[in-house]
Amino acid sequence: MPKSGIIIEALKKVIIEKGVKNITSEAIAKKAGMAKGTLYLYFKTKEDMISTLVESFLKEGEELVGSSLRTKGGAIAKLRAFVEADLSFYEKNHKIFRTLGMENSAMGNLLSKAKKKMILKRYFKIVEAIGRTVKEGIAENKIEKMPPIEGAVLLMQIIHAYAGMRIHEISKCSIAGNTDKVLKIFLNGVGV
Amino acid sequence: MPKSGIIIEALKKVIIEKGVKNITSEAIAKKAGMAKGTLYLYFKTKEDMISTLVESFLKEGEELVGSSLRTKGGAIAKLRAFVEADLSFYEKNHKIFRTLGMENSAMGNLLSKAKKKMILKRYFKIVEAIGRTVKEGIAENKIEKMPPIEGAVLLMQIIHAYAGMRIHEISKCSIAGNTDKVLKIFLNGVGV
Amino acid sequence: MPKSGIIIEALKKVIIEKGVKNITSEAIAKKAGMAKGTLYLYFKTKEDMISTLVESFLKEGEELVGSSLRTKGGAIAKLRAFVEADLSFYEKNHKIFRTLGMENSAMGNLLSKAKKKMILKRYFKIVEAIGRTVKEGIAENKIEKMPPIEGAVLLMQIIHAYAGMRIHEISKCSIAGNTDKVLKIFLNGVGV
Amino acid sequence: MPKSGIIIEALKKVIIEKGVKNITSEAIAKKAGMAKGTLYLYFKTKEDMISTLVESFLKEGEELVGSSLRTKGGAIAKLRAFVEADLSFYEKNHKIFRTLGMENSAMGNLLSKAKKKMILKRYFKIVEAIGRTVKEGIAENKIEKMPPIEGAVLLMQIIHAYAGMRIHEISKCSIAGNTDKVLKIFLNGVGV
DNA sequence: AATGAATGAGATTTCATTCAT
DNA sequence: CATGAATGAAATCTCATTCAT
Fold first, then answer.
1. Are residues C171 and C94 in the same domain?
2. Which residues of chain C have a CB within 8 Å of the CB of D164?
C-alpha cells in the first residue's frame, strides 16, 4: 500500500477509535506508524487528508452506482443491484459509519464550507444517476409516476434504514439478506 | 429570553452561518452580543453549550413523539400525527439541519464520545416509542408482521428523505403537504 | 465585627480550606456571606485584602514584642515573655500557618514585590527589637558575646521549630509548655 | 543541558527576578528562549514545571542528607556533615530562596493541595532521617534525652537561622564558616 | 451601602504545520 | 524521503474588577 493509503487507513482508525472530535495529526501519524512531518509529504493539510477520505467514499459510491446501473435487465433489476452493492458498501464500512453517521453531511462537517459544497454537488450526481434509473422504472410502468429524484432519495434512505440498523446493532442479521426486503418495501411498503 | 437561551440561539446562528468547523467561543459571544467571559457564567464549557443545543433538539423530539402518539384513533392515525409533527420540526429547523445533517449522530460528532453515547441512548428511546406504535399497527393488522423497531427506523428514514429534500432544496414544495405521501409510501411503497 | 474584619476572617478561612492557590474573590465573598462587589467597598484590590491580613499579623507581632519587652526584670525575663507570647500567637493561628508556612516570606509571596519589601522591612524592625534585648542579655553577661541580631533570629527560629512541630502535629503537647524548653535550648543547647 | 533543564532554570530565574506572583508561561518561555508551546512538549502543565523544580530541591536535599549521614564517625560528626552540606545548599540557592522563603511549605504554596501534601510527606522523610542520627547521638550520650524528631527539627531551624541571615544579607560572612557555630549552638546554646 | 451580572484582559493550553537535520 | 522538535497563532477558559440597579 502506498504511504498515502496507509495514512488514510490510519485516519479511518482514528475516527473509529477516538471519534471525530479527536482527530489530530499526532494521532494519525502514530496510528500510521510514521512521523507527523511525513503526513505532510503526502497531503498538503489535515483537511486534505479528510477530504481524500471523503472522496474515496464518494468514488466508491460512484463506481458502485455506475456498475450497478450497467446491470442487464430492467430498471428494477438495476435498482436491485444498486441496493445490494450499497448495503455491502455500508457493511464493509460499518465501523467508521457508526462513528460518523451515515449521511455524507456528517463527513462534510469535518471540512470547510467550500469543500463541503463541492462534496454535496458530487453526491448529488450519484443521486441523479439513481434518479435516471427510477425514471426508467416509471417508463417501464414498474414505479408510479413521481419526480425521479424523489424516488432516488427515498430508496437511498430505505437502504440507510437497514444499513443503520445493522451498523448500530439493532438488527443482527447480515446486510446481504436485506436486499429484497429493501426493494420490496420501496415498491410495496409495509402495509397489509 | 434568558441569557442561556440567547447563547444557544447564537450558537445555532454560528453553526448555520459559519459551519460546524468554525464554532468558537469568540464567534458565539459576538453573535450573542456579549463578552466571551459571559458565556462561561451560563455554561461550564463550550461542549456544554453544544450539548445543551443537542439536548434541546432531543427534548423537542421527545415531546413531539409523546404528544403525537397520544393522538386518539388507531396506530395509523398516531403515526400520521407523528409524521406531520416531525416534518414540521425539520421544517422549523431546516437551516441548522442543512449544516448539521439530519441524523442525530451528526450532532453527536461535536461532542465527546461519552456525551455522544448518552445522546444515542436517548435517541433510541424515541425510536422505541415509535416502535411501540408500529407494534399496535401490526396488532391492528394494518402493518405487516415485522420487528417493530425496524418499522420505526424505516418510517423515520422516509421522513428524513422528504425533510432532507426540502432542506437541501431539492424539492420546493412545503413539507406539510408531504405527510400523506410519506405515510402512503411507508404503507404501500412506490410500486405500481 | 466591621465588614472589613469579616472579609479578612473570610480570607483566612479560604486560605486554610482551599490553600493559597485558590484564593478568589468569589470564594472570599461566599465565605464572608456577602456579594463580590461588596468586597471592593472595603478594599481597593484583592492584594489589598491579603496585605491587610499580613499586616494584621505584623501588627499583632509588633504588639506582642512590644509588650513582652516591657516586662519587668532582666533580659532573660523579657525574652521569656516574648517566647511565651510568640508561641501563643502561633498556637492561636496554627490553622492558617499550617497552610502558609511560618515565615513571613510565605505570605509575602501572595503580594507584589514592592509590598513584600515593605513587609520585610517592618518584620526586620521586630527582629531588631528582640535584638536589643539580646544585647541587654549580653551586657548582663547572661548571653555570650555575639551580634545581637543573630541571637534574635536564632531565638525566633527555635520558637518556629517548636511552633511548627505543634502546627504540623509532630508534637502533641500544648505550645504553652514549651516556653521554658525553648529558652533552655536557646541558652544551653541540647548537648549533654 | 536538556530542554527540560533549560525550562526549569528559566523558571528559577523568573521566580528570582519577577517574584512568585509573576510566573507566567509567557515569561518562562521568554527567559528560556523558546516558544510558549515548547514548554508543553516537556511538561504537561505549568504546575508540572513548578512541581519539578520543587522536587529537584527535595531530591538535592535527600541526597545531601543521605551522603552526610553516611559520614564515618559518631552522630555528632554526621550531624556536622549535614549542617555543612545544608548550609552550602542554601548558599548555592540563596537567590531563589530569598524569594521563595526557606521553608518547603512556601514552595508548596505554588502547587495544588494534593501536590503540596505529597511534598510535605517527602520532606518529612528527610526530617526523620536526621531524627535517626539524633537518636544515635542520644544513645552515644552526646545529646540529651529528647524526641529525636524534635532534635532534628530544631537543628534544621538553627541552620535556617544562619542560612536566612546570609540569604537576607543580615550577615555578610560566608555560610561555610557557620558550620561549627550552628553545631555549637545546637549543643550548647548561646548562654554564658 | 449592597449586589451580582457582565466585562475583557490575560492566562493556560493545543495543535496544524514547518524545517533543519 | 523521513523525521520530530519547535513554532506560534489561535482557542479555551479564568477571574479581578466595575457599575447599573
1. yes
2. 153, 157
Do A2 and A54 belong to one domain? no
- How many angstroms away from the CA of C162 is the closest CA of chain D? 8
Query: Does residue D58 sit in the same domain as residue D36?
Result: no
Residue for grid cell 501588627: C59
Q: Which residues 31 to 90 of B reach strand F, CB within 7 A?
A: 36-37, 40, 44-47
- Name the residue among D140, D5, D116, D130 with its Cα closest to residue D54: D116
Burial of A114 (0-12, 13-18, 19+ CB in 10 A): exposed
Strand F contact with B150 (CB < 7 A): no
Task: Based on the fold, state whether residues B89 and B33 are members of the same structural domain.
Answer: no
Q: Is the pTM of this model over 0.85?
A: yes
- Cα–Cα dist A149/A84, whole Å: 20
- CA closest to C1' of F12 belongs to B25
Interatomic separation, CA of residue C21 and C1' of nucleotide F18, rounded (Å): 24
* Kind plus residue range of the DSSP H or E element containing D30: helix D25-32
Mean residue pLDDT across chain A = 91
Residue A175 has pLDDT above 80, yes or no: no
List the nucleotides on chain E closer than 7 A to a protein CB. Answer: 1-20
Q: How far apart are CA D84 and CA D182, in angstroms?
A: 9
Residue-wise pLDDT for C4-59, tens only, equals 999 999 999 999 999 888 899 999 999 999 999 999 999 999 999 999 999 999 99
- Segment holding C91, helix H or strand E: helix C75-92
Radius of gyration, CA atoms only, chain C: 18
Q: What is the CATH number of the domain that holds C15?
A: 1.10.10.60
* Domain of residue A24, residue span: 1-44
Joined together, the cell numbers standing for residue C88 give: 501563643
Shared domain for C85 and C12, answered yes or no, is no
Cell numbers for A77, please give them.
433489476
Distance A38 CA to E21 C1' (A): 14
Q: Are C187 and D189 in contact (CB under 8 A)?
A: yes
Other CB atoms within 10 Å distance of the CB of residue D79: 27
Q: Do D187 and C185 touch (CB under 8 A)?
A: no
Instruction: Please give the DSSP secondary-structure letter assigned to residue A64.
Output: H
Question: Which of D104, D66, D72 minimizes the C-alpha distance to D85?
Answer: D66
Cα–chain center distance at A156: 10
Q: Does residue A173 have a pLDDT over 90? A: no
* Closest alpha carbon to D90 in D30, D32, D152, D164: D164
Q: Which of D103, D189, D190 sits opposite C103 (nearest CB)?
A: D103
